[in-house]
Structure formats: C-alpha cells, structure tokens
Amino acid sequence: TNRGGVAINSDPESPLFGNVYVSNGRSMGVQIFNAQLQAQGTYLTDKFAASNGSSPLRCAVSEGKLYLTDWSDAHAGVWMFDPQTNLNEVTNVFEGTADGDGCIKNADGVSVGGGTTGVGFYGKGAERKMYVFCEDYPQGNGQTAVGYDLGTADTWNEAPTYTFGTASAKMLNTNVEVNATSHGLFLSQVRGSGNNNTGAPAFVFANYNDEILVNAGTMTDLDGCNGAGLTVTPDESVMYIVDGSSKIRKYNITWTDDTPAFEEVYSFAVPKATELNQLKLDHAGNLYAYNRAGGLVVIALPKTAEELKVATPAAAVISVSGIDEVTAEVK
Fold first, then answer.
1. Is the peptide bond preceding residue 201 cis, with omega within 30 degrees of 0?
2. Rounded mean pLDDT of 186-211?
3. Count of CB atoms situated within 10 Å of the CB of 80
C-alpha cells in the first residue's frame, strides 16, 4: 500500500484558507478538498515516481503553497505546488543535479538536499525557515535533519543553513516526520508497539542548537509511533501522536524555557488504522490523519471538560475514500 500525508491551509489571510491537501504515493496525486470537505479534484498524478509508494510522502502548507516530500531516488527533493497559480506543475525547492542515490548537488558540487520524509516550517516572509529530514545529506543515505533560511524564496541552491546530527542519530528507522516549533524540532519516526527505547525512540525534541531535550524512549506511557504521525497545537500546549498500536494519544505540554514536559490526557483508536503517517489540526481543532490503509481520516475531537475525562472519547470519524465517497461513523 502507499504512504502519504495531509496538510491544511490554516492561514485566515489566505484565499485558500481551510483547504485540505492529501498526498498519495506511487504518483497517485494530490487530492484537494475545501474547508467543507467537498472534493475539488486530484492533481499531479503524472509528476512523481509511479514505482515508489512514498512519492510523494508527507506534506506541509507554508505561505499558501504546498510542499511535498519525496522519499525516492528517482524524484528526490521537496516539491513546491502552488494551487493558486498552476494546478499541474511542481517545482523542486532544491536546485541542482541528483546523483544515483538522490543526493542533489549544486554546480560547485555542494550538497543541497535529496530525498525527504518530513517537512515543517516556522516563521513567515523573510523569517521563514524550512526543516526537513533528508535521506541524502550530506551524501546518499546520510539520514540527517537539516534546515534552510528559505525566507520568501521558492528554491535553494546552497548547503543547508542548519544541521541536526545529534538528534538525527536517534532516527534509526529513517522514516521521519518533522514538526517545527518556536522552541525547536519534534522528530518522530516509525516505531511499532514495544519498540520505543532511548536508542531509537518514538520521537525526540531538540532545540535549534541540536541539543536533545526530550527523548521519548524514557516515556513509559508511549509504546511506539506506528507511522510517525505527530502534531502540536498552534499554541504549543498540546501534542497528538500515534502510538505503537496505531491509537492516537493526546498529551498536554508544559514548557520550562525550551524544554517540554508531557502529561497524557487520553487515547483513542482510529477505525481500520494501520500506519498513521501524518497528523494535522485544522483551524477549528479537528484532527486529520493519513492512514496508510485507506487515506484521509478526519476526527472531530471532544471539546468539553466532561468528554476530555473519557479514556476513549466519543468522536465523529469521517473516512474519505478517493475524492467522491465520504462516510461517517459515530463511535
């Protein structure tokens, strides 16, 4: 089956505010839904590697544009898609020439980037930074999280601005999601049930100096991260993460300077879930997941204090199959 991802335009100032984007591997395209989950079409079905289930993979929205990771050698990079200007084209953020491993180098032979599994952004305009987990930096199969002072540019042709070698050394699975915050980076990786340990944890949180401040291998209430899905609320007070059994767990976050502490609130099962490759929240606080077994799942999270006390809270789960069929199941 294919891997994929989900991203949401949560910028109220954007004309595409509320749009939901679903990426599907083997070049099966990017599905676009409006804020009411009405299908707008499927695009880019001929732009990625049809032989690779992770081409494209996870994605993120920044400044109204969609950025798609690609975990393949033949189509390595981070691919920018601008739904406001051209629904049929993508541009690789990394400028240069890819070698046989997917490592992209500029004309001077400097490694710029390569195949990617996760992408996250922090900041806007001239202060915008892009962070990725790069399979092919500093060379093929280098497996390093890196950052770029992208600003207002669409492309990049230099070495990364930042590297995170210490944090990356814990990402032994190499299928890694990236979430950027004001305090640092969450790097989460695929770990099945019983495989969360300090050598290869479900996630690490590192500051922007590449110091690991939290290693999830020490968390006794988290047994893995099946699919690497993780997201944080815009105010950085709550984390949602898939555990080793494909349940979603909610944790409240308390910050001491740049160091987070986590307190579990509840967990719940997602119907027919296998790997949950990506989690995202919309402006209203609804949770979106990409399920490797079936694509997009939308979860209306409980909003009242009483519901929050329930171990497995009531939730309306909407499963979207293809672009035409939407079914709802109330748990």
1. no
2. 98
3. 18
DSSP letter at 308 equals H
Residue 330 pLDDT level (bands cut at 50, 70, 90): very low
Tell me the pLDDT tens digit for each residue of 200-257: 999 999 999 999 999 999 999 999 999 999 999 999 999 999 999 999 999 999 999 9
Distance CA 65, CA 82 (A): 5
Query: Has this prediction a pTM greater than 0.85?
Result: yes
Mean local confidence (pLDDT), 252-281: 97
- Is residue 165 helix, strand or coil? helix
3-state secondary structure of 125: helix
Entry field: residues in the chain:
331
Share of the chain above pLDDT 70, in %: 91
Read off the amino acid at residue 252: N
Looking at per-residue pLDDT, the higher value among 329 and 297 belongs to: 297
Assess whether pLDDT exceeds 90 at residue 10: yes
Give the strand order in the sheet containing 4-8: 4-8, 20-24, 30-33, 39-43
Task: Specify whether the CB–CB gap between 232 and 179 falls below 8 A.
Answer: yes
Q: Cα separation of 14 and 24, whole Å?
A: 24
Greatest C-alpha distance within the chain: 61
Query: What is the token pair recorded at 227?
Result: 């699919």
State how far the alpha carbon of 100 is from the alpha carbons of 12, 74, 140, 141, in Å.
42, 8, 8, 11
Cβ neighbours, 10 Å, residue 263: 10
Q: How many CB atoms lie within 10 A of CB 9?
A: 23
Beta strand pairing call for 247-256 and 259-269:
antiparallel
Q: Are 290 and 5 in contact (CB under 8 A)?
A: yes
144-148/203-207 β-pairing: unpaired
Torsion (CA) 264, 268, 273, 279 in degrees, nearest 10? -50
